[in-house]
Amino acid sequence: MASTQSEVPTLEPSALTNLIASASASGNLLSATTIQVLHNLQHQHLWTSLQIHDTGASQTATDPANGSSKDISGAPTLISGIPPHRVYTHPDQQLYMLGKGIHEDDLRPERLFVIPTAQGQTWSLRRMASAFDAMAEFQIVEDGEGRAAPEVDAEKAQKLDEYYKKREETLATKEWGAQRLLLAMVDKGMGGDGTVVYYVVQEGEVKPRQN
């Protein structure tokens, strides 16, 4: 009886591979790294209201503190979106929330910015600073696609109102920390499996806390 050689099944391209290929074919200038991070945020981490911000369209940004202009020509492309839960809460902010009896689920969802990058990519403090400067240029009006704040009673509503006023004050005083974003790093090295790792990056100098 003649032996038959088993056929090797053909593997279909992944959804991510098709997405990157279609973007390249259409002449989309977005890098494969940006598309991969966007896909990862949407389908693995369930972010909503995702947007891509081309910082190259604007070469200057206005400093909200004093109104001066800053050069952001070296700023990377940014992604922003609304995560399903808070990624980082400053310790002093946590203490304030505990004192007021406010839980994470009581708060409105907050948009967070992400820098898509690949392992081994060269960075500098100037380029990282330009990313924070560029964030101020993208004032986004939410359309309600993200998780809506739950209905609360009058007492909780008053506490939340006090919290949001306090939050506005701390944006100027940086009492609860300065601006922060996520650095998304894709493993594309030899043998890399495309895993995306996220790091919290805070603007400026972060003083160590005493326990």
UniProtKB/TrEMBL annotation:
GO cellular component assignments: tRNA-intron endonuclease complex
Region listing for Disordered, in residue ranges: 57-76
Keyword vocabulary terms for this entry: tRNA processing
Biased composition (Polar residues): 57-71
Molecular function GO labels: nucleic acid binding; tRNA-intron lyase activity
InterPro entries to which the protein is assigned, alphabetical: Sen15_fungi (IPR042777), tRNA-endonuc_su_Sen15 (IPR018593), tRNA_endonuc-like_dom_sf (IPR011856), tRNA_intron_Endo_cat-like_sf (IPR036167)
Residue stretches making up the tRNA-splicing endonuclease subunit Sen15 domain: 36-137, 158-211
SUPFAM superfamilies xref list: tRNA-intron endonuclease catalytic domain-like
Record PANTHER family: TRNA-SPLICING ENDONUCLEASE SUBUNIT SEN15 (PTHR28518)
Family named by the database record: Belongs to the SEN15 family.
Protein name per its UniProtKB record: tRNA-splicing endonuclease subunit Sen15 domain-containing protein
Organism: Penicillium frequentans
Species classification: Eukaryota, Fungi, Dikarya, Ascomycota, Pezizomycotina
